[in-house]
Amino acid sequence: MHAAYYSWFDRDRTPEPVPWDLDDPAAAPVANGRFFAEVLRGVEEQLVAADPAAARGLRGVRVVVTPNHWELPWTGPGVVPLLVLDNWSRVPRWADQVDLVLATNRDRSWRDAVGMLPRPLGALELLDEARVRAERRWWALRAGTRPSGRNVVALPLGYAHQREVPLVPWEERDVDVYFAGSASHGMDKGGALRRAARRHVGNIKTVHRTKMGESVDHLRTALPELRVRIDLVDGDRAADHADTYSRDMARARFCLDPRGTSRETWRYYEAVRSGTVPVVTSLPSGGLYAGAPAVRLRHWSQLSSAMRHYAAHPDQARALHEECLRWYADAGGPEATARRLVPHFQRVLAGLPAGR
Fold it and tell me: Which pairs count as long-range contacts for 24-28, CB under 8 Å and 24+ apart, including other chains?
């Protein structure tokens, strides 16, 4: 009693959907595919446990991982697209042609964009939000249709560049503040308009990480007793460092989690999965992230004062560590996500034609 799983990008690169074996990590179609595989296996297991007879309908379900908002290889009953790589939070053109859409990056809001005002970085966040909304509107006009989006269900980004490593007890962790990742975003990526905007205004990922780097320099001076580890790597080669990254994350107490091209990050999930407390400035505050544990800064210049506070109150730091593990187990991890998706899949199964 299993659904069929596929990946599909577009008709030029993958004319036919490519089968995806959930049990083969090497076959994951996207960087966070192992997380999605855990979620989808969990959905199947919980459906079978709830109603074995109804779960037989999984044989008529096709889940397809795709970044394509314009078209799908199939539509109709039993087709469940898993939409990835969308920083604009668009409602895909084909949304009303399927029963259920799973999608990441759904939690953008103006409220989060203004959180860092009146700092200059807050103005850049507002500009980024305005740009995204304008591009989303332009895309909808081009699509020529306005699907309701009522069947779009938010899916966590989950972990990507992380392997299974033992959980290090809080008292034995030997890194206080940790970051591993790239410090900039390629200026040559995207269309001509975006490249010009980066040259004149700055790329939001690069600006955030530059400000973070300046704050780390101040932190090292202000609190020299803290054990700070910063590893800068090429973002396009992050998977090459996955083993080292996973071990180091498990040894850290706090993880700096600057935004990238999106406010949501894999690093957030990789941190809480390890019981490492994320330090963030622009993580969404609603949707999937309502009540999500983190040290939330309005600006990176607050980093030293925040770390000084937790150094003086180790009981609060440890409580945050425990809250991270609890949140991942109860809300943000694969088991909890699967539990939240089960009712949606049950509706898909109920709508299948007889005999499917």
Answer: none
CA 261-31-234 angle, 5° bins: 60
Q: Distance between CA 92 and CA 69 in Å, rounded?
A: 4
Tokens of 234: 């090429």
Question: 30, exposed or middle or buried, with CB in 10 Å at 0-12, 13-18, 19+?
Answer: middle
Q: Read off the pLDDT of residues 141-187 as tens digits, 9 standing for 90 and up.
A: 887 888 888 999 999 999 998 999 999 999 999 999 999 998 875 54
Name the DSSP letter for residue 208: H
Is pTM beyond 0.90? Reply is yes
In the chain, count of helices (H) and strands (E)? Answer: 11, 11
Residue 252: beta bridge partners?
175
- Cα–Cα distance measured from residue 55 to residue 74, given in angstroms and rounded to the nearest whole number: 22
Place of tokens 């991982």: 65
* CA-based torsion, 30, 32, 36, 37: positive or negative: positive
- 8 Å CB contact between 13 and 306: no
65/55 Cα distance (integer angstroms): 21
**CA torsion through residues 98, 100, 105, 107, sign:** positive
Q: Is the per-residue pLDDT at 76 higher than 80? A: yes
- Cβ pair 68, 115 in contact under 8 A: no
Going by C-beta distance under 8 Å and a sequence separation of 6 or more, which residues neighbour residue 149?
91, 95
